[in-house]
UniProtKB/TrEMBL annotation:
It comes from Sinorhizobium medicae. The chain crosses the membrane at residues 21-43. PROSITE patterns: TAT. It comes from the Bacteria. GO terms for biological process: polyamine transport. It is found in: Periplasm. This is Extracellular solute-binding protein.
Length: 392
């Protein structure tokens, strides 16, 4: 820890994301443990296997189901129960970026041997347009109706023709309420308090260009995905003037910095921010900021060259069962969008409202899009912001 205001830090590379946090959490807690925040969750693998067996019916699903996803992004007990009940052994290959996954699918003509691929919302349209994923057969997904109404007909895939929600989350504000006494409710408050005497040089933002540009666009309630050069440069000017002079660090996981006093005000991912309340439930406040923020989501899709489409549909349908979804949420800490999940989680679970969004929050969240957002200019500006922060 240092008191030098010129010590601008970039903590965690751009590769440190919410999923890297999941990977570390799984390593620390043991991937076989079905618990979250230290609260054990009863999940009988036999019961889950029986669900898989009953959902499968008489169908022959083959011997193996190949899934392409992020590392440590599923509950092993849930996967084992599907294999025990429905038959196919699950093999998971992992990628480190969606761009790498898309490239591999393109080279292989839409398969690469996989039957399910996990796709981020920002890339769904791109994969549809490139014919890398196929339309789903809704007759094989009777549990699709278990998804909450607001998670159907998403703008990048109307009618869930190609994808089904896996998990989702958001970004928000986390602050030390023993230091910052006034309530923070919006991104405008974030900028104003961040420039104040109590928070200046004790402020962190995510090390992620869309999230930093979002500070401006979400505050204004304007197009978060704009690729307009004039608008992006105007956002740069705002950030150079109102954020950079007060910034302590670009930090993808600010929990430790808040706990040790380096920060009193941070932008953070929902999932990783929850863990501060395990250690100190009273001194920190989480905010779903107004008027806008991002809704990131990951989705199951079936590659166009899948050889086991029946097994792929059976697995997706299984994951939409409320008991299965609750076991999944308990392991990874992000909502699945399946109705009734929160009622199945323990009453003493820390901050349930940070797993399943409170009513009304989803209505003000927006999706990220890659195509048309001028990523080259955005990355250039983001690098300029980090260089300016280092000089302050």
């Amino acid at each position: 820890m240092t008191d030098n205001h010129n010590d601008i830090r970039v903590l965690a590379s751009a590769d440190w994301t919410r999923r890297n946090f999941l990977r570390l959490a799984a390593f620390a807690g043991g991937v076989a443990a079905l618990s979250i925040n230290g609260v054990a969750i009863a999940a009988d693998k036999g019961d889950l296997a029986e669900k898989a067996r009953s959902l499968k019916g008489d169908a022959d699903l083959g011997d193996t189901l190949f899934i392409y996803s992020w590392a440590d992004y599923a509950n092993p007990d849930v996967l084992d129960a599907f294999s025990n009940g429905a038959g196919p052994r699950i093999e998971i290959a992992t990628f480190d970026s969606v761009e790498a996954a898309i490239a591999k699918l393109e080279i292989s003509g839409g398969s690469a041997g996989y039957d399910i691929v996990v796709v981020g919302d920002a890339y769904v349209e791109q994969m549809i347009n490139r014919k890398l994923i196929q339309k789903l057969d809704h007759s094989k997904l009777p549990n699709l109706g278990n998804l909450r109404d607001e998670l159907h007909n998403l703008p990048f895939d109307p009618g869930n023709q190609y994808t089904v929600m896996k998990n989702f989350g958001t970004i928000g504000i986390l602050y030390n309420n023993t230091v910052i006494k006034e309530p923070i409710k919006s991104w405008d408050d974030f900028f104003r308090v961040g420039a104040s005497e109590v928070a200046s040089h004790r402020l962190s933002v995510l090390n992620d260009q869309p999230s930093v540009f979002g500070l401006v666009f979400w505050r204004e309630g304007k197009d978060y995905n704009t690729g307009d050069e004039k608008r992006l440069n105007e956002a740069k000017d705002v950030l150079m003037k109102d954020l950079i002079p007060h910034l302590k660090a670009f930090d993808a996981n600010p929990v430790q910095g808040l706990l040790n006093g380096d920060y009193v005000l941070s932008q953070g991912y929902l999932g990783s921010s929850r863990h501060i309340f395990e250690q100190d439930p009273d001194s920190y406040t989480w905010v779903y900021p107004e008027p806008q923020c991002v809704l990131w989501s990951d989705h199951y899709a079936v590659p166009s060259g899948s050889k086991s489409t029946d097994a792929a549909h059976a697995f997706i349908n299984y994951m939409l069962d409320p008991d299965v979804a609750a076991a999944e949420v308990a392991h990874i800490g992000y909502d699945t969008g399946v109705k009734g999940v929160i009622e199945k989680l323990p009453d003493d679970l820390v901050r349930k409202d940070m797993i399943v969004f409170p009513e009304g929050v989803t209505d003000r969240l927006v999706y990220q899009k890659v195509e048309g957002s001028n990523p080259t200019l955005r990355i250039q500006i983001f690098n300029e912001l980090k260089a300016a922060a280092a000089r302050n």
